[in-house]
Design goal:
The chain is α/β, with parallel strands linked by helices and about 800 residues long. Helix content is about 40%, strand content about 20%. A 7-stranded mixed beta sheet has the order 18-19-17-16-20-23-24. A 5-stranded mixed β-barrel has the order 1-3-4-5-6. A 5-stranded parallel beta sheet has the order 8-9-12-7-13, sandwiched between helices. β23, α23 and β24 form a beta-alpha-beta unit.
């Protein structure tokens, strides 16, 4: 192009035509309108200025400006030949053909027209002949591939193939690229033919891939739409044919109607199902509501509407089933048998609701499965731990996208009958959120007076849950709302004793774990002494989950030795060699010492994983009568310490007159300071420790105690006696002091514990101090102390 126009003279001043839309490249055509001037005025103004009818063309940077300046134009533009000028709709229209790149400067405005000075810009031909030819062929081939995606582009491709100059070819391609004006301006300003050509080729490749992907997606969508339309038409034709022939298709709505009519739905529910079926039949082909209605009707057909046939409740068989699956827990099994007896006698249909409370691993969930087996009913379990949305219980309304029924209805579908044993696990782990209170939704489920018309938001019809045997499980009642707790009968599982754990390990855990690990008794033998070692020193729990994990660890180690043929079979594991197979750190239990100094007394505590003993230490030092309490004690234990000190100063003043309370500071500490401790049951222990410290009398190390004290000196009952006494027996305690009202709890103790422990029930602090310190307190009324009355009668006899 430069050679062709090398003799062309650029006037000293050119009309500058501003462009708002497409950029004018050399060789291209464009039409531009100039407002505010007519053709005659334009010719008159340019008669002397531009006799050759050429103009400078440049892209505007800002279209909103009314007063244009030099900075409003790109400095690189195009020299254009004005091939035609005419008036159109009151405006001047110029037909321009790009000639060559120019650089513009000194823009001025005169009589509604812009004028500028310009100079040609040379393009750098930095490609040899072969490279130019290869570039041109590549651009032409790529343009042909892009044009193949569109119809009616054959003539444009032929015209493009006639171009021999790579520069002309590139300039003819750029206007058709899907690029922004700024990117196209950069190509216009590029002086290097090589760089310009490679950039254009790269954009063409990207545009080709984009068009190809869009074409494939369009074809798939068209095919899918055509196939869907064809299927809908055929389906409608089939429905008409079947209706005329009075035939029902296997999957048609008529078949669905028969299923509804044959189902055991109540009359009102069946009417609702038929209305929904009518809505389904009226839906147009391809309607999104069709699937929602079909899913709803399928659910109504899946939900059970009648109970499963079961025999009468056999208490003997039920007792045998519970004994076969659960060792110990005699009190719990007795309560369950009593509950089944009531179910056998009562005449109404209402189901039962039990709440099993106990530490982890004590068999709460498996008890539910055993009850289902004993009753010969379907069994279903739903875990509620972490549930925070009310819709998880009641379901979502069908107006929501992705609506589903609640867990209760899903469980009933899984059970397949209206009278299953339904276990609601971890009801104490429900949480409240912005989506409602799931515990509140359970109120209707677990209320025998309401659950015969349970309303699931998705099902939208009343559902009868009154024949369901609900069993809820929890670790603690503290987080269960009062109204919900009031609807259930609470049965407490206190945990297993060590001998019970050993028996469970021998009869249940070891055979099951050997089977799970592909072992048999001829390959691995785990002795009773090994189980005792695991229970006493490798686990600290109320249940048997930790014991099961430790036995599994032994089985894995044995499996490796069996495969590697390390030693002769069977591998025998006992107390002496299980340390070779286990890496778990042993559990530390408190044990009694040989001698307790004055002020140190052994107490008994309850924990979620069983009982434990703890030491209460007290000392005094010169001071101002202050009381210091450490060991991360709760408010209740701190109050018990203050009550004990007040009791000593009021009731035992004849014995403590030599102790200067106002001149001595007293410090009470309970070891294991990182473990929080609270509760009233340490009252007698704190009282005895302070009395021992003040009088300087030691308490026997094999004596432990528990109980709450009051300001009048009475000892009140406390909880967790079974676990506390068992822990004391494990630690080597020989004598335990418990509240008088807790005597009945001794019936739950294993026989071996009863035989080896001396249990002393007390009613007030006189009994406590008589047993612990041998103190005789005649100042107290006779009726307040059992020991004092016995001592008095003995003295009169003498």
């Amino acid at each position: 192009m430069t050679d062709y126009f090398e003799n062309l003279h650029i006037p000293e001043e050119l009309n500058l035509v501003p462009l708002k839309g497409a950029i004018l490249f050399p060789g291209a055509m464009n039409s531009v309108r100039i407002s505010g001037i007519t053709l005659e005025e334009y010719k008159m103004l340019n008669k002397r200025k531009s006799p050759d009818m050429v103009a400078a063309v440049s892209l505007r940077k800002n279209f909103d400006l009314s007063d244009l300046e030099n900075s409003d134009f790109y400095t690189i533009g195009t020299l254009a030949n004005i091939e035609n000028a005419r008036d159109k709709d009151g405006e001047l229209q110029l037909d321009l053909r790009g000639v060559e790149r120019i650089k513009i400067h000194h823009v001025r405005k005169r009589f509604h027209l812009l004028y500028t000075q310009a100079e040609f810009l040379e393009t750098r031909y930095d490609l040899d002949r072969d490279s130019s030819r290869i570039l041109a062929e590549s651009v032409k081939n790529m343009a042909g591939e892009i044009a193949s995606f569109f119809e009616g582009t054959e003539d444009a491709v032929k015209q493009m193939n006639l171009l021999q100059s790579p520069l002309s070819l590139i300039y003819s391609i750029i206007p058709y690229l899907n690029l922004s004006r700024s990117k196209k301006q950069e190509l216009l300003e590029e002086p290097s033919l090589k760089k310009m050509g490679m950039t254009v080729l790269d954009h063409m490749i990207r545009q080709k891939e984009s068009i190809r992907i869009q074409a494939e997606l369009a074809n798939k969508m068209t095919e899918k739409a055509s196939r869907s339309y064809r299927e809908n038409v055929l389906r409608e034709q089939l429905k008409v044919i079947q209706k005329e022939l009075h035939e029902n298709g296997e999957e048609g709505e008529e078949s669905l109607k028969d299923q509804i009519e044959k189902s055991a739905m109540p009359v009102e529910v069946k009417k609702t199902a038929m209305k929904e079926l009518e809505k389904l039949e009226d839906q147009p082909p391809g309607s999104p509501e069709t699937r929602n209605l079909r899913n709803y009707l399928d659910l109504m057909l899946q939900v059970p509407w009648e109970p499963v046939e079961t025999g009468s409740i056999d208490l003997t068989r039920s007792r045998e089933t519970l004994d076969a699956h659960h060792y110990g827990l005699e009190k719990v099994k007795k309560r369950i048998i009593q509950h089944l007896a009531v179910m056998k006698l009562k005449n109404d249909k209402k189901g039962s609701i039990l709440l099993l409370i106990g530490p982890p691993g004590t068999g709460k969930t498996s008890l539910g499965k055993s009850i289902a087996e004993a009753l010969d009913r379907p069994y279903v379990r739903v875990s509620l731990g972490g549930v925070r949305d009310e819709a998880e219980i009641r379901g979502h309304r069908r107006t929501y996208v992705g609506a589903l029924p609640g867990r209760i209805i899903k469980g009933m579908v899984k059970a397949g009958a209206t009278n299953p044993v339904f276990v609601l696990d971890e009801v104490d782990k429900l949480t409240v959120s912005n989506n409602g209170d799931p515990a509140g939704a359970l109120l209707e489920v677990l209320d025998p007076e309401q659950n015969d018309t349970f309303a699931d938001h998705y099902l939208e019809v009343p559902y009868d849950l009154s024949d369901v045997f609900f069993i809820a499980t929890a670790n603690s009642v503290d987080s269960i709302p009062g109204p919900l707790l009031d609807r259930m009968e609470v049965i407490t599982l206190s945990g297993y004793t060590n001998p019970e754990k050993v028996h469970i390990g021998q009869t249940h855990l070891v055979p099951q774990i050997l089977k799970d690990h592909g072992l048999n008794e001829g390959q691995l033998e785990i002795g009773e002494d090994a189980l005792e070692e695991l229970v006493e020193n490798y686990t600290r729990e109320a249940g048997v989950r930790g014991l099961k994990r430790q036995i599994a660890a032994l089985a894995r180690a044995a499996s490796q030795e069996v495969v590697e043929n390390v030693r002769e079979l069977p591998i025998i594991m006992g107390r002496d060699n299980i340390e070779d197979y286990l890496e778990t750190r042993k559990v530390r239990h408190e044990t009694i010492g040989k001698v307790n100094p004055p002020g140190v007394v052994t107490g008994m505590a309850w924990t979620p994983v069983g009982g434990e003993i703890l030491f209460v230490e007290s000392t005094h030092m010169p001071g101002n009568g202050n009381l210091t309490i450490t060991g991360q004690l709760g408010d209740v234990m701190k109050e018990s310490a203050r009550i004990s000190l007040s009791l000593i100063r009021s009731k035992l003043s004849p014995f403590t007159s030599s102790f200067a309370f106002k001149e001595e500071d007293i410090h009470i500490h309970v070891p294991s300071g990182a473990v929080p401790k609270d509760g009233p049951s340490a009252g007698v222990t704190l009282l005895t420790a302070l009395t021992s410290m003040i009088l300087g009398k030691p308490v026997k190390p094999d004596l432990a105690m528990t109980g709450e004290v009051t300001l009048r000196g009475a000892v009140l009952p406390v909880g967790g006696i079974k676990e506390k006494v068992i822990a004391a027996h494990r630690a080597g305690i020989k004598t335990v002091i418990i509240p008088w009202d807790n005597k009945k709890d001794m019936e739950e103790l294993p026989e071996e514990v009863k035989q080896e422990l001396t249990v002393v029930p007390v009613s007030n602090i006189s009994d406590v101090l008589q047993t612990a310190l041998g103190m005789y307190i005649p100042e107290l009324p006779v009726e307040e102390s059992v020991f004092f009355s016995q001592a008095l009668h003995a003295k009169e006899s003498d």
